[in-house]
Predict the 3D structure of the following.
Amino acid sequence: MNNFPLIGLGIATKGTSGNILDAFYPCISFKNGEDQISLMYEKWDALLSEDVTEIKDVAQLNLQDESLKIAIDNLDKNKTLVLCKILDNRPIESIEEAYLKLHLISYKYFLPNSLNLENLFDSLLNVAWTNQGPVELDGIEEKILSAQINNQPLEIKSIDKFPCLTDYIIPPGVRIADASRVRLGAYLSEGTTVMHEGFVNFNAGTLGSAMIEGRISAGVVVGKNSDLGGGCSTMGTLSGGNNVKISIGENCLLGANSGLGIPIGNNCIVEAGLYLTGGSKITTYNSDNESGSVVKASELAGQDNLLFIRNSQSGAIEARINSKSIALNQTLHKN
């Protein structure tokens, strides 16, 4: 993991209004880093007049990567080259900084929930994400009409503040069946498979090999060798009043169409179809399979080796000792 201060070299898209719509950061230089790009930190820092500075002369950057230099030399007229500096873990102050922080998570320089993302939604613009890049919504009808007249199809993939991850970063050793379902700012570790119904939000992701066929909400992290079954859901903190960060430990299984509203430890299973909220009343069992007290699910948060099931006769939710070990199909995760 790297740390502050840092400078991102970004290619920003300007709309017809002059507003910055997005920024792509192919290079990030860390002051205390030892890689080739980080050795440029002091030189780039000297070019900054503000925390976000537009660069007119590419030669000033002293880029060693010829392919990158050529690409930057031939930017489209609606693109601009910027340097964005982040001194410390402060709230976001610009759209360029917002995109840089999302890149930092998806490049896996910082873990989910470690960056200050305050003001993120206020900084990002709601735009049309198309096969021709981001397009401002003001005047989008004219853009569609022009595309039809000139036989240059304009495919609108989404209207959102967040683009999909793979328009900017391809994480190594990962399979993503439907790229539109993984947002920029997702943290995907090598060996992760995201199937067609899987979804990974920004500031969330996997800490090792994992099978994702359900939804990972913002702020949620999944431990290695865990499996999120088809249609399952993890509760986020962006809406609904929930302020508990959900996490899933290692070697866990969330059954199909289940839901999770508490953090769980390692080697836990949530039965298919069971939605476990913090207020759910749970009957606990010991290792001898003897029932004990009835507690709120939140009191079991983070505990290891639990099997959460609903008694098919009484309807009561039970937490039994899980003696099984979850194992992913290694063949599926050699990505």
Notes: Residues 217 and 236 are 5 Å apart (CA to CA). Residues 6-123 form a domain with the Alpha-Beta Plaits fold (CATH 3.30.70.2010). The chain has three domains: 6-123, 126-160, 165-333. The helical segments are 41-47, 66-73, 95-106, 120-123, 140-149.
